[in-house]
Design brief:
Strand content: 15-25%
Number of helices: 12
Strand order of the largest sheet: 5-6-9-12-13-14-15-16
Structural class: alpha/beta
CATH architecture of the largest domain: Alpha-Beta Barrel
Radius of gyration: 20 Å
Number of strands: 17
Distance between the termini: 42 Å
Bound molecules: 2-phosphoglycolic acid, zinc ion
CATH topology of the largest domain: TIM Barrel
CATH class of the largest domain: Alpha Beta
Length: about 400
Amino acid sequence: MIKDLRVYSVYNSKGKHALRVKIQTGSGFYTASIPSGTSKGKNEAKDIPMKNVIEIFPKVRGNIIGLDESDWITADEIIEQIDPSKDYRNIGISLALGISLAIAKASTNNELWRLRGAKTTYRFPFPLGNVIGGGEHGGKTAWQEFLILPHKAKNPIEATSINYEVWNIVGEELKKRKLLLGRNIENAWSSSLDDLKTLDFLSAIAEDFNVKLGIDFAASSFWNGKTYVYKGLKKELTPEKQIDAVEHVANVYDLYFLEDPLHEEDFEGFAELNRRLHGRLIVGDDLYCTNTERVARGILSKSTNSAIIKPNQFGTLFQVSKVIRAMKKVGMVPVVSHRSGETEDDWLSDLALAWGAPMIKIGNLGPDIPKHNRLIEIWHDIHEKQMASLP
Ligand code: PGA
Ligand code: ZN
């Protein structure tokens, strides 16, 4: 039985407020900390300031104390009843998800990956790592993240090591060529290269390693309502030209993963790209915001074949599990993802495994070390395991 519930204002990797939740049960204490984004989608669940959390907290606490922690689904239903707004505007997504995760951790004795119950073989996700960054995360490019995927790694130890090695060489090489500006909030390098030169540079290095390339364009961040604005390239592209440009770079650089190549309301444009780039992953992040209704719309319009899953864009664990089930039914690939303002909590790694996501988008070490280390730890704890099969 849940005996106590407490909340704390702690720090995230950007030095900003993050919410930590702690519950006490008959068997101990369980905590969960919630990250936050920088280039947020406009359809994400709402968060509220800490002073408002403190105001609403006694009522929430009264409803949670006394619940049975082993029944995490009922607990999540009660959270929905406390705030029936759907976007958590009353209690804030951090409090809702924090309570949900802390209870799920209690119900699994801090081994959240067991949520899915006994399975014969567990499939470990490949880390998709941000090597060079731009956009709202800091850097010269309009595109936000230049990503690598160590698709031949035999285990999480090797996967992390490959991503780190590529990240390291990229940094050294940028420095040698006097192109290095620093590191951005996700521990990705920022350089003075423009978007296309960054791709040239990274793909030359990637050739020496067994990594696939991806980009998170985060296109809403350089969409002005009419055109896509490339400040570095001194160019503006109409939506049609943006589709042509994305198709071109995907083919020339053999991009495996293309996240948010168009702005967050362009379901039809995504569908066009998905059709033209058959065989590559077209991924919706801001497009869906992990939201059931938006994902359902994307399925109907065949906008993408993959979606980013960021639990704090949408809701409790139970709600997010339902989105993943709906996606899997139609073969849409779930990619679980960190946020750019992270905490030391490692629940994302457990959930990637529990949900059977073939990829987990986490930084190359830096603030995301705990997530890498957690995957390594679980790899050693589980007997029947293998790396995920990638689409
Ligand atoms: P975030 O977004 O900065 O909102 O976490 C990262 C991303 O767009 O994937
Ligand atoms: Zn994104």
